[in-house]
């Protein structure tokens, strides 16, 4: 038995010695088929990229949400890298050409791609000057009347709408806030005319949020209906200044260049007194851009002889003109000068001014 065990023990190492070692792959320079390796290696590397982003690749076809999000982020990152690489390449070419480099391309924006509005007018035009001298606001601009504004709300206003009206009364001089008490506007307008008001401003609300404004010029109109959005009261604004004083503010009207824009600009200008009080250093701005009217109320501060800072006092809001009606408010038999149509929204985005 001992002999057999020794024999077995001696046989095992001999078997291990007889095993052939595994052949290790030779490097490319030792193998004669270098061309085959060079051809096969790029195909093996590029295969996953071609498989992950084929020419007809669509992320929406992936059913798994996490996988779809991952593939979308990879695709977005790849496009970003290609864009950066193209920018670097163009910059190198421009640096190499020096003064002979072609001019830079102007980027496409909403502003420079707008369709020119044919109703844009020159303020020095004789026809425009004649129309402005005989319109409903001519008495104000001839200094025959002083503005007096009545601000009211819809029936049963909520706290946010009431605070918004009170803050508007601090912005507009000689403005008075009255509760409506269920009266119809047709009954309110004669009372306003009898008491010497030149404007009636009605703030409407929906779900406790101000969403509309009716601005009626008295006694002969016109009446404008606006959609109100992005309302922020003073307490909701960060880094605001102290409450405004009773001084009459300056008024800035930007980009009211069309015939309709001229009417809107004169409508807003007639809300404020003729002569601003520069001691208060307060400015009310109506900025028209992309058919929206942005309202801001600032106070400017002189830091030194060359530098000036501004503080926003609030409130701020955005207006969108819905309709312009001749005369005072009349929802049934009123004659409308301009109405925003739903199917024209896409065209209006590309035009100048409202």
UniProtKB/TrEMBL annotation:
Cytoplasm in keyword set: no
GO cellular component: nucleolus; preribosome, large subunit precursor
Domain Brix stretches: 147-330
Coiled-coil regions listed in the entry: none
Ranges of compositional bias, category Basic and acidic residues: 1-13, 27-47, 93-108
Keywords: Ribosome biogenesis, rRNA processing
Feature: compositional bias, Basic residues: 14-26, 76-92
Domain of life: Eukaryota
Major location (coarse): nucleus
Region Disordered: start-end pairs: 1-64, 76-111
Protein's name according to its UniProt entry: Ribosome production factor 1
Organism: Oncorhynchus mykiss (Rainbow trout)
């Amino acid at each position: 038995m001992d002999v057999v065990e020794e024999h077995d023990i001696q046989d095992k190492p001999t078997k291990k010695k007889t095993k052939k070692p595994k052949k290790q792959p030779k490097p490319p320079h030792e193998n004669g088929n270098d061309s085959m390796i060079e051809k096969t290696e790029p195909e093996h590397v590029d295969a996953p990229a071609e498989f992950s982003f084929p020419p007809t690749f669509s992320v929406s076809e992936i059913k798994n949400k996490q996988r779809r999000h991952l593939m979308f982020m990879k695709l977005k990152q790849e496009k970003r890298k290609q864009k950066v690489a193209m920018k670097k390449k163009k910059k190198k070419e421009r640096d190499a050409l020096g003064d002979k480099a072609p001019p830079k391309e102007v980027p496409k924006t909403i502003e420079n791609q707008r369709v020119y509005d044919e109703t844009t007018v020159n303020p020095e035009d004789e026809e425009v000057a004649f129309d402005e001298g005989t319109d409903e606001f001519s008495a104000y601009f001839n200094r025959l009347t002083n503005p007096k504004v009545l601000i009211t709300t819809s029936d049963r206003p909520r706290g946010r709408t009431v605070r918004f009206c009170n803050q508007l009364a601090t912005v507009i001089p000689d403005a008075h806030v009255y509760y409506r008490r269920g009266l119809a506007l047709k009954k309110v307008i004669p009372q306003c005319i009898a008491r010497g008001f030149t404007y009636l401003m009605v703030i409407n609300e929906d779900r406790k949020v101000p969403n509309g404004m009716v601005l009626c010029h008295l006694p002969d109109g016109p009446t404008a209906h606006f959609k109100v959005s992005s309302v922020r009261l003073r307490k909701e604004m960060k880094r605001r200044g102290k409450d405004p004083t009773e001084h009459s503010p300056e008024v800035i009207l930007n980009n009211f260049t069309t015939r309709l824009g001229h009417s809107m600009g004169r409508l807003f200008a007639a809300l404020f007194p003729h002569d601003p009080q520069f001691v208060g250093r307060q400015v009310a701005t109506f900025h028209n851009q992309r058919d929206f009217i942005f309202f801001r109320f600032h106070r400017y501060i002189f830091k030194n002889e060359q530098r000036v800072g501004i503080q926003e006092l609030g409130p701020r809001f955005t207006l969108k003109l819905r309709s312009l009606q001749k005369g005072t408010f009349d929802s049934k038999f009123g004659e409308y000068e301009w109405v925003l149509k739903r199917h024209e929204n896409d065209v209006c985005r590309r035009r100048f001014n409202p």
